[in-house]
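Bench notes, afternoon.
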Amino acid sequence: MKNQINSSSDNESFSILDTNLNKNILYLENIFTDCPDVVYQSFIVNNTKLYMVYLSGFVNDESIPLQTLKLLLETNTNILDDNLISTTPIIETSEMQNVVSEILDGHLVVIIDKESKALIFKTNGGAYRQVSEPSSEAVIRGSKDGFIENLSTNIVLIRQKIRSTKLKIIQKKLGDLTQTSVAIVYLDHLVNREILEELQKRLDLIKIDGVLESEYVEEFIEDNPLSPFSQIQNTERPDSVVASLLEGRISVLLDGSPSALIVPTTFWQLLQSSEDYYHRFYFSTFIRLLRFISVLTTLLLPSMYIALSTFQIELIPTTMLLTLMASREKVPFPALIEALTMEVTFEALREAGVRLPKLIGQTVSILGAIVIGTAAVQAGIVSAPMVIVTSITGIAASIIPKANIGDTLRLLRFPLMLLAGTLGLFGISVGIVIIAAHLCSLRTFGMPFMKPIAPFSLLEQKDVLIRAPLWLSTIRQNKSTWRYHLFKKGRM
């Protein structure tokens, strides 16, 4: 018999569908041995026997195209009739490999007797949460919707904001076992083709059993995976992805992850928020400058305190020095040990607040910091100025909008504290030079990570530390709007 089915137990061997329905079902039962969630339902339509095969957790009663099957029964419509109207997308396949893959993807497969083809109903099912506000990125003004773990839903959220045929999507599968769906999203007329091709090459080179979160992909495709700085932006906000697409960037979405990746990314983008463009540019510029000060505070404040109180005492004003010496009089530890103790304790409280239930997490972290700080000062373990320095540093780290760059800065302050405790201000200077040189050496898909500061570009400074008016700062600038604003200001 032609199209003979290989009924061996080798799960990696696939073949063409046989015209004998029983052999096809036997092959699937062999493939899905010990898989009780695979459902087999037999029907007879127009004196033709067929089987519906699907995963019970992905295809529920509401998504099964029973109305289509009922129409087939009542009207004697040919099963493979191209004129069949159905609200559920239907495709045909003759490959057994495609049948198995579609079943695992959660779709309904109908196998027909005496036909070497199967119908695949693209049913939407599975357990997913509803679209809600992103938990990792607070929203004050702007869109309240956030990505979820369903790739199709996330693509819809982007489509709702970009209603253009120029929005293109390339889909791939990653993970030998998980077969995670990945979507590369870009605007066809704005994207850099070289970066798009390079991204696809890097994704194709990923060989791993499973991809469970976007971080798996991020570590494989970034230029320098050993760097503490993340060179790829991730976000849960559709409006941030859309804004990046309008700038010619590319987004990578993964099924099962609410975080979208954006490439290429610069250091300054990690310090920006989509809400910068939803407020008046005066206020947004002020907030950006505040964030930059927070970056310096998070990175340098504890080490500066250690260096000044240990080596460069003469740089401290006399009144402040007397207060500092009085507060440290009963403290038995040097400033370095004191700072390391408080910073590690603060990081432990922060982590505890994240891991504990939301109802008590913030309360425990706040009360723990107050109680431990007060008790440590009263016991003479640490000084009151050190508690103040640690608190200011923690607040400054919380101002940074992107968690990945905030975590990196919190981590880097520890080696800077060690340098400050051994070499003073000279050690801090060495650490800053090393960090700055490393940042300037990084590239993200061929683009300098510190662009447009290094290399410096005067024309692009209007959207780095300051946020110029939208009618002046938009990359794809509408010249008529620009001329209109100048005319109203009496400059034309």
